[in-house]
Amino acid sequence: MSIDVNNESGTEVDEQAILDVARYALTRMRIHPLSELSVIVVDTQAMEQLHVQWMDLPGPTDVMSFPMDELRPPSKDEEEPPQGLLGDIVLCPEVAKKQGEEAPTRHSMDEELQLLTVHGVLHLLGYDHEEPDEKAEMFGLQQAIVDGWRAEHGLTGPSPAPTVS
After folding, report:
1. 3-state secondary structure at position 48
2. Three-state DSSP class for 41?
3. Own/partner pairs for 102-107, CB < 8 Å, 24+ apart?
4. In the chain, which stretches have pLDDT less than 70?
């Protein structure tokens, strides 16, 4: 799995954890091991520009996903998942920090970025949360992946609850 993390935000983030949780999520979703993903960490100004340009919404957001090859998790019938370019996930640590502080289960900026990374991966794989049933499926899967990754890394305490919009 080729995953690049590029921090352009000026904020110190745990890039290794972002890389690890992305790899864990992609492995758990049975994405081909030769697939490629890019994670870019930006400041609020850059995120706001992307948010306006691509979503026509004001202000910065927490995470955006830009799929390339529109890969999907393989069905149970498929022996070999297809490989390709997953796309880009863009994270904003300043928004993540605020969300972590305001969450019911207060948590750190880095914990929020880990959650947002998984959220971004799921969007790249075609998951969405526009409808209540889609939201339940996506957020349940997101929580299971984050919990599994945290358990595998010996992280204790409550895992961050979904705070993404």
Report:
1. helix
2. strand
3. 102/163, 103/160, 103/161, 103/163, 104/161, 105/158, 105/159, 105/160, 105/161, 107/158, 107/160
4. 75, 77-81, 156-165
Strands 63-67 and 85-91: antiparallel
- Please, what is the end-to-end C-alpha distance for the chain in angstroms? 28
- Confirm if 126 and 72 have CB atoms less than 8 A apart: yes
| Burial letters 98-123, b for 16+ CB under 10 A, else e | bbbeebeeebebbbbbbbbbbbbbbb
> Are 52 and 16 a contacting pair, CB within 8 Å?
no
68: DSSP letter: S
CA atoms of 115 and 80, how far apart (whole Å): 27
Say which residue the tokens 């935000």 belong to: 9
Give residue 156's pLDDT.
67
Cα 114 to Cα 40, 55, 92, 151: the distances in Å are 13, 23, 12, 14
Pick the closest to residue 39 from 76, 10, 2 (CA basis). Answer: 2
The verdict on pTM exceeding 0.85 is yes
